[in-house]
Design goal:
The complex is a heterodimer of chains A (about 350) and B (about 325).
Chain A lengths: L10 H11 L1 H19 L4 H7 L2 H32 L6 H19 L2 H22 L8 H23 L15 E10 L6 E7 H23 L1 H11 L1 H6 L4 H26 L6 H16 L4 H21 L4 H15 L10
Antiparallel strand pairs in A: 1-2
Helix pairs in contact in A: 1-2, 4-8, 4-11, 4-12, 4-13, 5-6, 5-7, 5-11, 5-12, 6-11, 8-9, 12-13, 12-14, 13-14
Chain B lengths: L7 H16 L2 H28 L6 H15 L13 H23 L6 H19 L10 E2 L14 H24 L1 H11 L1 H6 L4 H27 L1 E2 L6 H14 L5 H15 L1 H7 L7 H15 L3 H23 L2
The chains are: A mainly alpha (about 350), B mainly alpha (about 325).
Chain lengths: ~350, ~325
């Protein structure tokens, strides 16, 4: 198939180009950005409060959306990498998330250390992913549908095994002492009219730190992908697997590494999910679907796309939940449908 | 005569199905056979899309559910504040039409990308519909759904009695089966198979690839809707749980286990699935497990089929027949 690939252009040039080609859209985007910044930073006048509710609600929904997006990103990043490189639609990815959460709960309660759970879960769930790739998926390379069907079978079996072992009740992991309680963010929540005293927004610190951690992981992944030899191989594999194999790279080791890493990341996301909310049977499907929608919106096989998609879906879900509870799912779905209709390869996906 | 082209085993098979009520109990007729035909029809709509169109859609249960919901919403039901209570000759065509519209719109979205993306996009749409029915109370009556959805008393027959219901589902299943067999050989079906095998070449020949795929979604919706409406009548209720993610995946399991190459496959898969489901307590008890582990059996069985016989039980049968024929040829050919 003939593919037209645009070379990497310097960012500033691309931006100027965009402004020149779409002056109207640029103005609209700029106005939207200014309005958004005003909503976030300025204290709200009474008329706005009357129509939209208190600013604190808006900020909480926004931050909740961003932190939920961080969680979605951690799950979807592995999913999109595995898909981009190996063309496997791993529908057992949600199960890996749930296994990670349950194992994290066991480790955290047994050792009493929340932080210790992360490396252990990363290694154990990563190993499960390695085994899946080594014993099952690598045996049927190139048969995309069969791999997907196998992953569905695995997800059914794993879901029932987990239900057997951990039962139907919900678990949640308590955040450690130093992360409990709220912290003040430099965002104005409310200004008292008579005294002029400023109330700053208070937000659960564990969520803030998880957001920071997700950003750090995202940047680290971007650096590994774009600045190291391994990342070069992965990117080359995403573009043309056969050519990479032909040039002497032991591609199966790269596959194993990516599958293990993606699975481990999903497992760690499980711990975070258990700390944010709670774990119960059915969460695996919920997070699988979230990652599906995130990568459909963001673009398959693109890490930056996964981040963008996760942010959009997370914020849309929380905003919808606060301002239009009946239609919050529809909002998420409409975003997906709009992306599919106008840009089927996803916002940052490359056409293939 | 076209009847002469149907081989003898099919006549025997048909006769057995027609005369089954003489020996079978009400439970077998209503629960096992009725459910098998219904699940088979929904699986058949997936088989039509996947086998002839190359589009593995996880949406078929949602389309069936949409038709079922429309019967409950437009017709009479226990939720009198939501249901409109129209008479059946308006309700049934409307249900088919709305489900077909839903299938066409979702299909048009799903065919924007092809290959393995289809499965992801249709799964996402199915999930969105499931969550929407669960949250929306004004039309879909939310979490509780609709109960007391009964079939109309046409010709003075209570179609929910085991015997009439058996013949009703049998007739619908036979019609759907016949329609798929006919479509597979009609110009549209042949063009669809051409699109499955080589879309670029078909496009070069002047066929509208996208239109054929969307039309396949619309046609498949008829089979799914038939199954969905009968399913609502059989259970006398519909709720979001009926169209959940696991039900959507069950339809795929049924079609894959039976075999997605031929229209008979989904019915065989449905029969196996229903038998396992109904007798799971006994089967699992025999191996010393509790009845809760039904999904584990289904999952392991599905994995085994996908790993060892990707074209399902029918594929196993074909290979066995080929093996027998080869052995026969070897013995006769090896003789003097």
């Amino acid at each position: 198939m003939a593919k037209v690939r645009h070379g990497k252009l310097p960012g500033r040039y691309e931006m100027n180009n965009f402004i020149k080609r779409y002056p109207l859209w640029s103005v609209i985007f700029l106005l939207l950005a200014i309005a958004f910044l005003y909503l976030v930073l300025a204290p709200w006048p009474p008329e706005l409060v009357a129509s939209w509710g208190r600013k604190q609600i808006f900020l909480n929904a926004l931050l909740g959306g961003i932190t939920l997006g961080a969680l979605y990103f951690l799950v979807a990043a592995g999913f999109t990498l595995i898909f981009g490189l190996m063309r496997i639609v791993n529908l057992a990815h949600g199960s890996l998330f749930l296994i990670g959460g349950y194992l994290g709960y066991e480790v955290a309660t047994a050792s009493g250390s929340w932080l210790l759970a992360f490396p252990i879960v990363f290694i154990v769930v990563g190993l499960i992913g390695l085994l899946m790739q080594f014993f099952i998926f690598s045996k049927m390379e190139g048969e995309e549908l069969r791999q997907t069907l196998v992953s569905i079978g695995l997800s059914i079996v794993l879901a029932d095994l987990m239900l057997w072992w951990w039962g139907g009740q919900s678990y949640s992991i308590l955040a450690p002492q130093f992360l409990q309680g709220p912290m003040e963010l430099p965002l104005v929540s409310n200004v008292n009219d008579s005294t002029g005293a400023v109330t700053w927004l208070r937000y659960p610190s564990v969520r803030v730190w998880i957001l920071v951690a997700a950003i750090v992981i995202g940047i680290a992944m971007w650096l590994v992908l774009n600045r190291t030899a391994l990342g070069m191989m992965i990117r080359a594999g995403v573009d043309d697997r056969e050519m990479l194999a032909a040039s002497g790279v032991r591609i199966h080791l790269v596959f194993l590494a990516v599958f293990g890493f993606g699975a481990g990341l999903a497992g760690m996301a499980g711990i975070i999910g258990a700390t944010f909310q709670s774990l119960s049977p059915g969460e695996d499907t919920r997070f699988l679907l979230a990652s599906l929608v995130v990568v459909i919106v963001g673009g398959m096989g693109s890490i930056v796309g996964a981040a963008l998609g996760a942010l959009i879906i997370g914020v849309a879900e929380q905003m919808g939940f606060v301002y239009a509870p009946t239609y919050s799912i529809v909002l998420t779905f409409l975003i997906m449908a709009a992306v599919l209709a106008f840009r089927p390869q996803g916002l940052l996906g490359t056409g293939r | 005569m076209w009847t002469e082209r149907i081989p003898a085993p099919w006549w025997v098979f048909g006769l057995i199905l027609l005369l089954l009520p003489i020996v079978a109990s009400d439970f077998w007729l209503f629960q096992i056979m009725g459910w098998t035909f219904i699940l088979g029809m929904i699986g058949l709509s997936l088989m039509f899309l996947a086998g002839y169109g190359g589009m593995v859609s996880l949406l078929q249960m949602s389309i069936a559910g949409m038709a079922g919901y429309m019967v409950a919403i437009l017709g009479p039901s226990g939720a009198a504040n939501v249901s409109l209570g129209l008479s059946w000759w308006i309700v049934l065509p409307a249900a088919f039409l709305i489900a077909a519209l839903f299938a066409t719109i979702s299909g048009a979205l799903a065919v924007r990308t092809d290959g393995i993306y289809t499965i992801m996009i249709t799964l996402a749409i199915a999930a969105a519909f499931f969550y929407f029915t669960r949250q929306n109370y004004s039309v879909f009556n939310g979490y509780s759904g609709f109960n007391l959805v009964l079939p109309p008393q046409v010709f003075g027959v209570n179609w929910r009695d085991p015997l009439p219901f058996y013949y009703l589902t049998l007739a619908c299943a036979a019609l759907c089966y016949g329609a798929v067999v006919y479509l597979a050989r009609a110009p549209f079906g042949l063009a669809l198979q051409g699109v499955r095998d080589n879309p670029r070449r078909m496009a070069a020949l002047g066929f509208n690839v996208t239109a054929h795929r969307v039309a396949a979604y619309a046609l498949a919706s008829v089979f799914a809707s038939t199954g969905g409406i009968l399913l609502v009548w059989q259970n006398a209720q519909i709720a979001p749980g009926t169209i959940g993610i696991s039900s959507a995946i069950d339809v795929l399991v049924v079609a894959v286990v039976g075999g997605m190459r031929r229209p008979l496959g989904p019915f065989i898969g449905a029969f196996i699935y229903v038998l396992l489901q109904v007798f799971s307590t006994d089967i699992l008890g025999f191996f010393g497990f509790s009845a809760d582990r039904f999904k584990l059996i289904i999952g392991i069985g599905f994995l085994a089929i996908v790993l060892f016989s990707p074209d399902g039980v029918l594929g196993l049968w074909d290979r066995w027949r080929a093996g027998v024929a080869a052995r026969k040829a070897a013995t006769t050919g090896g003789g003097p």
